[in-house]
Predict the 3D structure of the following.
Amino acid sequence: MKILITGTSQGIGKAIAERFLKDNHEVIGIDRQEATLKQEGYTHYQVDVRDFDKLPEVSNINVLINNAGTQNEDDIDINLKAVIRITEKYGIQEKIHSILNIGSASAHTGAEFPEYCASKGGILAYTKNVAMRVAGFGATCNSLDPGGVLTPLNACVMNDAALWEEIMNETPLKKWATPEEIAEWAYFLTMTNTFCTGQNILVDGGESINYNFVWKD
């Protein structure tokens, strides 16, 4: 299948791309940073997802994964508006098999920065809107909403022993997910799953049970 993933230069997006490449799918990545994947079957476009006019003309996408995101940097534009524009451009068409939006546990709890929560909360509603529209193609659309993930974006708290202890006290499973674990969820929801649609799948180690948010000052 032809897979389009945004935000593939690091973290969750890179792990998802590697998971699809492992099964010999054609993977197209869009990221404002240079490519860090150099594998056969991978094509990289260095474009900021906000630059709609510069997005590549790629047709007949089978799986679209909206992963690119940020915290405290034009969150609404990057995390929500860009997802909408990219989905409308690449995802709403007859060749689509599945669409996955990478959301956040904070969309369910509100326990993070205001614009970040709002941007990810919008993903919950937009996912349901898209699911209704692509159902006619036999396609699914869901959001995968992680809690803590061991990525460079979270390094400031991962490397602070006191904050990390506090975070673990708020996480019943006493761990964060690896990007590779989230990638397996993404693969399942887009490739194995054919019946679950319009849902917001919360994967957070039980953190949302406590509704507290810990971060560095």
Summary: The chain has a mean pLDDT of 95. The first strand starts at residue 2 and ends at 6. The beta strands are 2-6, 26-31, 42-46, 63-66, 98-102, 140-146, 200-203. Residues 2-150+177-209 form a domain with the Rossmann fold fold (CATH 3.40.50.720).
